[in-house]
Amino acid sequence: MIKPILLLSAFYSVNALSQVTVLEPLSFGTIVVVENTPSSSVTLLPSGTSSGTNIHIMRNGYPAELLFEGFGARVQINITDSGVHQPLTRINGGTAFTLDNIIYANSIVTNAYGMATLKIGGQLSASGDGQLYLDDNYSTTVEITIAY
User: Matching Pfam families, A to Z (predicted)?
Assistant: First the structure.
């Protein structure tokens, strides 16, 4: 069984009291690639709902959850990513997954205490080259940019 996991890094330029904390990394759960074809993929929405095409979901994953603190009351924070993501690989190499995109709200608004949370999902695709995937953890790092 395959356990792809993403670590999210938030890069931001804010005052010294503001911070972004990764409460939960993005995980697609435990999956089995039935057919490694170009159409094999799994999608995990920020709500936690997941579905797969030619990929069986053995154990559900969960969206990433970021906590924003110290941004001031009712501040709109805009979120973007480059759209270019590194492959999800295992430590010893082999067939990699592709992170086609990450799924998130483009902006959030802090509450009266200057806090907000953001949940992030994504779509993961198999290589499509017919090669087998080995049982292991697959991971990568994703960068997002925030502006407010």
Answer: DUF4402
Check if the beta carbon of residue 53 is closer than 8 Å to that of residue 25. Answer: no
SS3 per-residue string spanning 131-143: CCCCCEEEEEEEE
Q: What is the rounded CA–CA span in Å between residue 129 and residue 120?
A: 28
* Domain extent listing, the chain: 2-147
Instruction: Assign 12 a pLDDT band (cuts: 50, 70, 90).
Output: very low
Residues 58, 70: contact at Cβ < 8 Å? Answer: no
- Opening angle at CA 45, ends 78 and 96, nearest 5: 100
Quick: pLDDT tens for 15-31: 558 999 999 999 999 99
